[in-house]
Amino acid sequence: MNLFKNVSTFLGFDNEYEESKLVLFGSPFDGTTSFRPGTRFASNVMRSESYGLETYSPYLDKDLEDVKAFDAGDLEFPFGNTQKVLDEIYDFTSNILKDDKTPIMIGGEHLVSLGSIKAVYEKYNDMYLIHFDAHTDLRDDYLGEPLSHASVIKRCWDFMGDNKIYQFGIRSGEKAEFEWAKQHTNLTKFSCEGLKEAVKTIGDKPVYITIDLDILDPSIFSGTGTPEPGGITFNEMMEAIKTMESLNIVGADIVELAPQYDTSGVSNAVACKILREMALIIEK
Amino acid sequence: MNLFKNVSTFLGFDNEYEESKLVLFGSPFDGTTSFRPGTRFASNVMRSESYGLETYSPYLDKDLEDVKAFDAGDLEFPFGNTQKVLDEIYDFTSNILKDDKTPIMIGGEHLVSLGSIKAVYEKYNDMYLIHFDAHTDLRDDYLGEPLSHASVIKRCWDFMGDNKIYQFGIRSGEKAEFEWAKQHTNLTKFSCEGLKEAVKTIGDKPVYITIDLDILDPSIFSGTGTPEPGGITFNEMMEAIKTMESLNIVGADIVELAPQYDTSGVSNAVACKILREMALIIEK
Amino acid sequence: MNLFKNVSTFLGFDNEYEESKLVLFGSPFDGTTSFRPGTRFASNVMRSESYGLETYSPYLDKDLEDVKAFDAGDLEFPFGNTQKVLDEIYDFTSNILKDDKTPIMIGGEHLVSLGSIKAVYEKYNDMYLIHFDAHTDLRDDYLGEPLSHASVIKRCWDFMGDNKIYQFGIRSGEKAEFEWAKQHTNLTKFSCEGLKEAVKTIGDKPVYITIDLDILDPSIFSGTGTPEPGGITFNEMMEAIKTMESLNIVGADIVELAPQYDTSGVSNAVACKILREMALIIEK
Amino acid sequence: MNLFKNVSTFLGFDNEYEESKLVLFGSPFDGTTSFRPGTRFASNVMRSESYGLETYSPYLDKDLEDVKAFDAGDLEFPFGNTQKVLDEIYDFTSNILKDDKTPIMIGGEHLVSLGSIKAVYEKYNDMYLIHFDAHTDLRDDYLGEPLSHASVIKRCWDFMGDNKIYQFGIRSGEKAEFEWAKQHTNLTKFSCEGLKEAVKTIGDKPVYITIDLDILDPSIFSGTGTPEPGGITFNEMMEAIKTMESLNIVGADIVELAPQYDTSGVSNAVACKILREMALIIEK
Amino acid sequence: MNLFKNVSTFLGFDNEYEESKLVLFGSPFDGTTSFRPGTRFASNVMRSESYGLETYSPYLDKDLEDVKAFDAGDLEFPFGNTQKVLDEIYDFTSNILKDDKTPIMIGGEHLVSLGSIKAVYEKYNDMYLIHFDAHTDLRDDYLGEPLSHASVIKRCWDFMGDNKIYQFGIRSGEKAEFEWAKQHTNLTKFSCEGLKEAVKTIGDKPVYITIDLDILDPSIFSGTGTPEPGGITFNEMMEAIKTMESLNIVGADIVELAPQYDTSGVSNAVACKILREMALIIEK
Amino acid sequence: MNLFKNVSTFLGFDNEYEESKLVLFGSPFDGTTSFRPGTRFASNVMRSESYGLETYSPYLDKDLEDVKAFDAGDLEFPFGNTQKVLDEIYDFTSNILKDDKTPIMIGGEHLVSLGSIKAVYEKYNDMYLIHFDAHTDLRDDYLGEPLSHASVIKRCWDFMGDNKIYQFGIRSGEKAEFEWAKQHTNLTKFSCEGLKEAVKTIGDKPVYITIDLDILDPSIFSGTGTPEPGGITFNEMMEAIKTMESLNIVGADIVELAPQYDTSGVSNAVACKILREMALIIEK
Fold first, then answer.
1. What letter does residue A108 receive in the DSSP assignment?
2. Peptide bond into C31 cis (omega under 30)
3. pLDDT interval class at D3 (50, 70, 90)
4. Which of C103, C252, F29, F227 would give a disulfide with F218, using CB separation of 3.0 to 4.6 Å?
5. What PANTHER family does the entry give (chains A, B, C, D, E, F) (predicted)?
6. What is the full per-residue pLDDT of chain A (284 aa) written as tens digits?
């Protein structure tokens, strides 16, 4: 016999690195999560659970088997040192981009997006950011720490500036954050209304999509640290993804699944399906 | 150092008793619950979990920090003696009312509302009752016991009489209860349709609001003893609360959260948010 | 005293066999389930949990107490031998039909329907099949096995042929299955649209209804092995059942509840309510 | 076909009432439980779970199939009225005794034993009581209520008097209870040391055995409302039962299993095995 | 960059196939499990959870890093066809043996051992079998099926014959099985007493070790389908492994972990540690 | 009425700060936990759950009501900045010591002990450290970070030096750590053997006791991030505490309870009882 070590990839991400256009990796970090931790387990669980899915999407009438995608596994982090974690993500993403591949990351808490967005922004500095979330994530700091899950979009704005960030589904935050957003980002409360217009405005400019899965109503996505009732439905998410099909997506991430809070496995299935659909619209 | 004992209040209910208009207390009793007990744990859990919330409501554009509210903790009950429990609630509520404050109670099973509603009714006997629930709660007795979670609204009707009680969201009960309601209460099946008209009719008369959280669909609120699919959505609940903003609310309660049946914590978040919104429309 | 052995039936199914028109039985088999097993526990749990329900349906304004129904308990199966299991179900169903009673079965995985549908089809070979499901179930085989939960409707088609099978709510399957369905079954993606037309077409012909409960959105029904977000709501299911009230239903089953994945008990309540409503439209 | 209603009994308790010497029944009441309720679910769960057991005991080299035993199911109680519950248990037990059968009861909280012990005591007033428990259960009252899970043995002492009660395994209680016991009962702290002597003293006098399962260490029995580490092992419990084999047991109960706190099912298995062994030593 | 697909092996089993002496593989099958399924998830979970362990054993003062071991991942089975599953295991094990490597298998239910033991026996037909278990596993058939988890050792005896099988820890079974064992196997009830003598008798003859983890007391190993209180402690298991250090072990398996029944993760840790220790005594 | 804000303290820790000798506080930090987080929830849960306990200890024949103890609540930490967290703990502990009170801390992960031990050491630099744990905690760093749960005792050694640290119950670590310990600490593998001698050696010198609760066998304490089977029993822990009754204890902590991994609540009860016993031997 000639046997190979046991390989574990996300469903359909079973191509070799060289031949792939899409590169998936996990950033299992939840070190600044203040309320309920656990997003560090998301990437590992999603790989296992993805085998409950089909590769074919009846929403997009496309099949993952037609996409060349690679799964690099998870980065390994020293817990307790936030800056080092972000640097590692930044470096890894930069290397993927150098090889002209598109990075797609599984979080981890939302802060991990900072490392990845920064790396993509440095390659594409006319880039837009589409941000799906329940929370504003626009604090200056959290208990004095500027690097926090609650301030990640503010940190992106630090280098992206005004008019480049679209926020959808937002329904929780401090009053001051909502006020600030009026001047600096395009924030839509509660829903994805206005996404079509955003897509039109962006046109063929490069765009990074960051999906904090808690944008979904916790009825369908309870596996997250800070559930916020009043979110969008799964079908609205599917609709949003279809709306973005025409975009020039240069990077993406899916964050804030904390599998242990939803013991039914539904949240895992939701996250996996969204990742499948995202892969299908990025790699056309 | 000068340190004070560890204090635990619901988010934003951190004012002193004297300065507060709103007084929160818990009635952790589930002694007549026939199916699945556990609502006794609600108030304690809601205090802890409320710190996952923000004080600001994007629904009402109001902030709990602008409300003077006090949390008196939980009443302590002898389990096994239902009448004594109701008497204790009645006495405590009466005392709050004497100090010209508005009581807001966390259950416990729905029967606890009887103690509180009675006390408020004795101060305001032109009072209306708005009742949100999945169940009619109009039985004469349950296995021979007149004091039961299944008969609490009937017991209120005993002293309030016809035309003063509005019931919304009802979708479970005996056929006879639905028939009886046609003559004696304003019962709306399944939804909150007709709430606007009720609010108009009530005008500035005093009104008590009792929210059995199982009016919500169990997709978003599974943490309850007797889940009844087919309920209202969280957004419909938010809408209902906004509709009642103009009312002269003289008492309120939120009952039937049984936290242990929803291990994801979503039901706790839902209950906390509804309590926040209720506080914001009572204390204007 | 004269005492009888402890009896355990589904709510309202407490008549004697002889006097009953409706016969309920459980088929606790999940031996071909490839992903997450557990549907073997459904029938036992549903009997216990049904006592959280009322016998009266405000949806249909009918009462189970007016229906003569019998609960035969569960068949006992040798695990590991799929064909023997199906034979046992077939034989038991045939015997019920010989006594001119209508069988209603609780699964178990969806494959158990094959035994029951075959028996009913042999009595009524102009029969239609209405199939509610998230999955196509139209594979030829699964890892080489033709008797699989993933191929049960294909196995029914083997003897029923074209134009007799209506499929609703389908949102997962291989591309080839969706293609095949276009020629051989009436498949509706995602929803129950077209059910009214189907009911009209079928008229008073005999019809068997098989409900894979995963047609429901996992927000309200997470207790199943392969949850598929994007399903129908509970109210849409209620509407569908009402739509079928006029049909001549000669057999039915409710499958794929796996109680342990939904520790809140909501899925059990959903399954019980659907069984109650089905009983009420079969036995008119 | 001629079918009978679905019967559900504890493993091996499948004889008719008339032919049986042993009569099992459940008292699913936990209305005075102050900490964590749930023992109301024990009897129903134990019936289902007993089918994971074998009827043969390698400990006693005896087989349940050689015992004539009957399962009467559960009594039905009005929650919220403690005295009525105890009366119902008393009446039911008395009727069993009149038919010259031996009652064996599944609780419920420990207070239910009061109804059963009283009935047995009235038939056999030279009776001894052997009490296995982690708790003294010797309070005069609990928050003013004399009928409480925490005072059940004190209530038995009220009519049994001094020197008739043996207590084993006790490791929790108020200081005053331990002091009181020194004068009035034979209390052994922590272990079952002295059981052999007790058995010798009792000789062939009638004896009632009440087993509060929390005498067991929570490592092996975590399914209980108030777990107390430092308890006896399962093998020590088996040993204790064997030690009592020679006794003239005229009644017994097994209380305080709260199945939902041990999701592994181990506590259910433990409770079932203890019930099997008890049945085997009662019915010789 | 040059990246490799994400690899997932058990802790320390990260060598290449060619260089390894020990070959690990998973047989995720639980198709004949009659009571509570779930052992199919064991191998996948053990790989993830093994990273909570250290490679160094203070029990044996040995380190996994000094062992050349390979993890081949899991076999893929068609559920519903028991014979095919056993054939696949048999073939795979035979191939490993042909390459002069030692197979170590993670179940799955105990029946999977039959495939592996048979393959090893054909190479070493003077082989002994040491069997750790709570259950006799000596039935002729289970509900008519000869291939069952409850008859696996009987099936091994079919080809191994008398005096070759040692059974330890047995505490559950039918009376007839215990009787049969007296003539045909060396069965020790409850404990591992006599293991030292067995090791002496076996000497340097080849031996296969099959560990049904439910030999352990469910206090430390609750993650299994049919927990049997009264088992051996973890330290007794460690002691037993050390006792077998001198043996000529030609094959081994560890079966019946069902991770979902122990949500604490303790059972996973126990299983992983036992696998580590077994690897350390096989590969000397 | 005159009402006070809802107070929440550990059972019996209800005295005022000024009058108390013992000061309890929580350090809810788990930011360097590499495997499974969650110890941040321990202190809050222990306060609630302590009300399932009695104040009287039958082990020590002492009562918490005779002890003057104060509960200061929890420190509030910025997650993501480990050094700041340790500084806060150090400062708080120092202030307690300045007021001549004895600090007793609830973790959190084990690293929090570093802040507290350092503060106590600066007051008493002839201090000994008794360390109960399953793990050596003697790494130099973890993935490059010197401040880690896996290196906390090494960090204490940095300032305490050789011959001052006693370690008991250790059964997991790298080989190099065990080797290092031979020269620098008094490490006892697996058990508490030698504790009596240690107590004799220490005499009336000041001593700090740090209890990592995972020293306990996970059968009785499964609520921890990295369970290690083979630990000490609860009774052995009680014995150890009694053995230390004569010591001059100047500080103590109890760490690594992660309540969510033991849904039965047993681990919480164990932790609470150990804290009660510790309080009883510190405040004599």
1. S
2. no
3. confident
4. F227
5. ARGINASE/AGMATINASE, GUANIDINO ACID HYDROLASE, MITOCHONDRIAL
6. 778 889 999 999 999 999 999 999 999 999 999 889 999 999 999 999 999 999 999 999 999 999 999 999 999 998 788 999 999 999 999 999 999 999 999 999 999 999 999 999 999 999 999 999 999 999 999 888 899 999 999 999 999 999 999 999 999 999 999 999 999 999 999 999 999 999 999 999 999 999 999 999 999 999 999 999 999 999 999 999 999 999 999 999 999 999 999 999 999 999 999 999 999 999 87
Sign of CA dihedral A25, A28, A32, A34: positive
Structure tokens at B127: 């009072």
C-alpha F253: how far from chain center: 2
Residue B230's pLDDT band (boundaries 50, 70, 90)? Answer: very high
Cβ contact, residue pair E56, F226, below 8 Å: no
Task: Please say whether the beta carbons of E244 and E218 come within 8 A.
Answer: no
DSSP SS3 for C255: strand
Question: Mutate which of F36, F39, F81, F152 to test chain A, going by most A C-beta atoms within 10 A?
Answer: F81
CA distance D257 to D224: 5
**Is any Cβ of chain A less than 8 angstroms from the Cβ of F58?**
no
Angstrom distance (rounded) from CA C221 to CA C244: 22
**Cβ contacts (< 8 Å) between A264 and chain C: which residues?**
218, 222-223, 227, 261-263
Sort F182 into a burial class: Cβ within 10 Å, 0-12 / 13-18 / 19+: exposed
CB contact under 8 A, A79 and F40: no
Alpha helices by DSSP H, listed for C27-124, are 42-49, 82-98, 112-123
At E219 the pLDDT is 98
Q: Does the beta carbon of D142 lie under 8 angstroms from any beta carbon of chain F?
A: no
CA angle C206, C209, C213 (to 5 degrees): 175
CA distance to partner chain B, nearest, from residue D174 (Å): 18
Which domains does chain D show, CATH number per domain? 22-282 (3.40.800.10)
Residues C68 and C31 sit within 8 Å (Cβ to Cβ): no
> Is the CB of residue C39 less than 8 Å from the CB of residue C30?
yes
What would the pLDDT profile of E256-267 be if each residue is shown by its tens digit? 999 999 999 999
- Residue E45 confidence (pLDDT) above 90: yes
Token output for C20: 């009953």
- Per-residue confidence band for F5, with pLDDT thresholds at 50, 70 and 90: confident
- pLDDT at A10 (0 to 100): 97
C234 touches chain A (CB under 8 A): no
Q: Chains meeting B at 3+ CB pairs closer than 8 A? A: A, C, D, F
Of B6, B44, B72, the CB nearest to F72: B6
Residue F31 scores a pLDDT above 90? yes
How confident is the model over D65-88, as a mean pLDDT?
Answer: 93
D82 touching B, CB under 8 A? Answer: yes
C24 membership: H or E segment, kind and range:
strand C22-27
Q: Note the pTM of the prediction, 2 decimals.
A: 0.96
Other Cβ atoms less than 10 A from the Cβ of A215: the count is 27
- CA-to-CA separations, A122 to A84, A125, A148, F102, in angstroms, rounded: 19, 6, 21, 54
In chain F, which ranges are E strands?
22-27, 56-57, 62-63, 69-74, 102-107, 128-132, 165-170, 186-189, 206-212, 248-255
Q: How many CB atoms lie within 10 A of CB B201?
A: 13
Say yes or no: A219 contacts chain B, CB-CB below 8 A.
Answer: yes
Enumerate neighbours of A (3 or more CB pairs within 8 A). Answer: B, C, E, F
Is the pLDDT at C67 greater than 80, yes or no?
yes
Which residues sit opposite B22 in a β-bridge?
Answer: B69, B102
pLDDT at C1 > cutoff 80: no
- Cβ contact, residue pair E32, C80, below 8 Å: yes
Q: Taking the mean position of all CA atoms in its chain, how far away is CA C174?
A: 23
Q: Is D270 on the interface with E (CB under 8 A)?
A: yes
